[in-house]
Protein 1
Amino acid sequence: MTIVAQKLRCREISEADIDAVADLLTRGFVGRPRDYWIRGLRRQAAREVPDGYPRFGHMLDCDGLPVGVLLLLYTARADGAETSIYCNLSSWYVEPAFRNYAPLLTKIAQKNAEVTYLNISPATWTWPIIEAQGFVPYCRGLFFSLPALSRIKPGMTVETVAADARTIEGLSSSEAELLTRHARYGCLSLICRTAGGDALPIILLPVRIRRGWIAPPAMQLIYCRDIADYVQCAGAIGRFLIRHGKISVLLDSNGAVPGLIGIYTEARGRKYFKGPHRPRLANLTDTELVLYGP
């Protein structure tokens, strides 16, 4: 192991490493094809990243080849008048022969005290490990809503945002860009307009909830300004989604959601954070779920 240690270093992933990193992740995550990783890494290569932060993440380098990787997705989010930095820790894998050095990746990745770190897809068996690292759950489960069973608000309309839309009536330029960017990632970006003329942005992502051979189609709520906005629009959204073969929308939640019909479960959906800002529910924008897919 001394020889290995002399050859080994931890460094940032560069664009030149994409192919080798995709190969490593394909070996490490059985069931995820190489195209899945290449698509996500290319999206990371093209997206905006806050100044001074890694574009892709970190890797354990042994003689120029990755033997361990931790993908990092940094995003600047507006929290009221303040802009805060969030980092989604994603897709941690280390080759078996180098597992003793795996903590180097997490130690380097979590070194910035001003950053709020997220883990949005922890395996159940890792929960005690994550909590021992100082992470706290901010979301304990999922609410499976059936929006078509909600009453439609009088005058409510739903429209789709195109991926090439330049402006959206009723939205700021930054929020309009958020919706069009996520439409390009394959999300369903919607504007719900109330009878009073308010424009309420909603972003949904197609997912499949697998239970054995059964995988009913559903949508995951990726973004709205407040859960109350989704509740207000649920009836209209439900009728809209039925035309596209979807009947359920999953919401990050810590319990049943007043005003919605559905089921809450803590069997899946737990999400953690560590850092100065507790993440709000209903904001999974620019995370692994969007850039890489469910």
Protein 2
Amino acid sequence: MLPTPTPPHPDRPRPTRVIAVPGATAAHPGHERATLGWIAAQVARVLDLPFDGFADALPAPRSDAFLVPQNTLDADEAARWGLQNEAELLGGVVPAPFVASKVITHALVDADAAAPTGWNAGLGAQLQAVTVPGFSVFARDDLLRAATILLASAHAVRIKLADGIGGGGQYVARDLEACRQHLATLTPADLDAGVVVEVDMAQPATYSVGEMRLGGRRIAYVGTQGLGRDRQGRPVYGGSTLSVVRGGLSDLLDVFRQPRLRRTVEMAITYDRCAQAAYPQLQCSRRNYDVLWGSDAHGRALGGVLEQSWRVGGATPAELAAFDLLDREPGIARVLASSVERHGPVQVPPQAEVYCVLDDPRCGLITKFRHAGADPGAPSVFEAFDGSTSLHA
């Protein structure tokens, strides 16, 4: 549930332009920057405002800008732009950088464990019923203690950097010695930012539950993630397929009645409400929660929220396609929208819209496209719990 929007400050002008705010990976030419610029231009079209380019090309922040940041902004960054509430950006604002990372999903290993300033000690306990078993750690000894506890009942643990995306920055350890070896590769900066230690799940499948607010309108969705292969043949994020309706997260409960899908939505809603209550300063116009289903060491089904994303992401082009279709076609109640990312040569379906084709200096040729149409409501798209569709966010 979103907080009540703060009324605009009388000295802040209404947005007259849209500006993209790149993070580190979009600070140089490449597919991340191209995609961010394309998303910002689409947002500008929806808001009927001009797209004024990238923030790093401006001499100073502008107080009349609607922002499309690549990353979730912290309070200091938002203040530099004069942002007052979530209606002035597509993304989110958090009180401290760690709040936007994976680490808020879990509790500390015990009350004496290291934690950053501003840490809410109660949130992890509140989220235990809707998350995969795990801990967040900020010190070497705490990581080993967390792994020891989890390995007592799990076949393996997954160690994840706080800011890893697309399955990056992760390591699976099957015993404590493997944890020690991986711990030796972590830098002090890695531990300061936080590391998540979770039970590793068999046959994993990742689902997304999200909501986007833009220009006074709102959509919500349940979706699945797919895998692609990079030019070295390694699995990478390959896109998302979303079933989208008008409204917010709670409206999804009226649409997705299959038991496991309903539970997926309920877990995302609980995570959203608990995080908002724990960090009241949180303001978001785009909320996305990755929910993992798989099986534990005993073969029992296990599900839980992995992390939040309060920023534009890989599914945002599909979200915007659905938003546009629902706006243009009031008779359509539900939209099936997809965004696809492929490395190397690819044949794009004729009904798709290409939004990025680039020979990226780091990853080679990459093509991104999207398409959207009326959703017939077939549940099979979201009930194929296929382990090949997960990177463990």
Protein 3
Amino acid sequence: MGKMGGERNFGYGKQMAWAGKNALADRYGDGHYGTQAAHSERWQQFCDYARDQEVRDVRQVTEALVTAYGESLQQRVEAGEMAVSYAQNLLSSVNVVLETMRGDTQLRVSPSDLVGERSSVRQEAPAGMERERLQRATAELRERGEDRVASVAELARALGLRFREASLLDARAALAQVAEKGAVNITDGTKGGRGHLVDRWVPVSEPATMALERAVELQGDGRNLIPAESSYAQWRDHAYHAWSQVAPDHELKGFHDLRAAYACERYEQLTGSPAPVISGERLAERESDLTAREIISSELGHGRVDVVSAYVGSAR
């Protein structure tokens, strides 16, 4: 069935998600049920995105739409909400279904080009290391009326938070923890829900305290920095767009780069030596290096020490 250009969804069905499921059955035939199910689940996510863009027929899907979808996934990767590998799988499934339904590869995109390739070792120093750049960027954001976006950026840099964690942080409760313990326990918005199962105390510096105080003012009666009238997804898309308008002018990258800057700064505080990605090699003694990585891994909310290499560079 299918491949009838004049019919809705190329003749595979009236609904995009159902049509994609039929196309996969057409492609794989009997068997490969696990593969079909995986592609179908990932295709459903693209259909949800397309519907939000008022596209309900595969014949209306354009390269621009698929690219925009890839960029939205890349934002979630940078925010620490999604693994690069899963984002690549989502785009690969879109490629498979579109190729099957259309009968060509004209809309095929490169998953690695859109969402990046996962590297286990950071090779480039994070741009957010220079606080002056961030100060200039956040000042511009505030001039544009984007005070909440500016605060999220400051919290990401000062506490090593993912975008989601900074957005959902209750700054008022955090300041109470600072008064009592001099640290903040990150529990909301953590990856995989680890925050409610594992304590994650992050030490609070003077810049972090100032960032929390500014966040409290913006938070008002709310529980976090997300505007009351916005869903998290709406806020995320708005914040990433606002950040993208100012960051390049100040030689800054994504929010996740600010988190890496925190990690590199903490590494130097803990070892007395620059992070390997900054110095070009490991200068700290091996034992000191490992201890620092264990502490930073905990503060960043990771379960494995080896992940820290993606923030501070190689331990070799």
Protein 4
Amino acid sequence: MTQAEEFEELRPLLFAIAYRILGSVAEAEDAVQETWMRYATSSTRPTSTRAFLSAVVTRVSIDVLRSARVRRETYVGPWFPEPLVNDPYDDPERSAELADSVSTAALLLLERLTPLERAVFVLREVFGFGFPEVAVAVERSEAACRQLATRARRHMDLGRPRFEADRREREELAARFFEALRNGDVDGLRRLLAADVQMVGDGGGKAPAFARGVIGADNVARVLASTFPWLTRIDARVEAHTLNGHPGAILRDRDAKVIGTLTLDVLDGQIQMIRSVINPDKLGHLGPVADAWALDSEVKRARRSSKD
């Protein structure tokens, strides 16, 4: 097997590691590309290509995360990870850990950890690397890595949300939700929402969003029912997708350009959280991005004309 073939075989794992550390598809892809450059120019072949490349992509991701955290401190409004449609890495023995770790809620919890804690947690708890491999990857002693893992696990366990385990039930609820959304059915939406449901948007100051969030089933149902039917009238569509392992949708305009995404957190047969990502900088990997401000203006014009 050639060097390039070895790398391509491991690319899904490398991306999966980088995405969980960074919460960004674009940054994870850049980290993987940087890892390839370092591997391609290395004068020696490692004993274990998997261990070597995993260590390199982890170090690259830690460096990127440190600078990204500074930028996120001045981010306008809530920050959410970039939506992920498909996790390229699959390991049947760790399917539960992989699915849980890619959820938006879990990635937001990871944001609370230091870069080293986050990297150690991802390598150890999500991908099952041994502490000797983790220590090499983050350039710390095994004892230090064990302490980092313990602290990270404690933080994650304290804040870890519970989700609906039955995928089919979750998907059926999401289908009813999006049908009610398209129809502007306030009562239908209200029945699917938890009493204390929250809806929050990430626009990054670059697109219309629910800046302060909306709380409560009545309020969320009214806002949704008063917004999405108008998008339908200007030929926008809601495409159901699994995003970050949970029910969601990609919103597209009449030209199939991406307006934004919605993801749903489901527990006990009700929707507990609705998150939207409308920041155009976070949507490019899903396809050409629409001008959300222009669409917002078009919706407002349609509303005004309907009153005339």
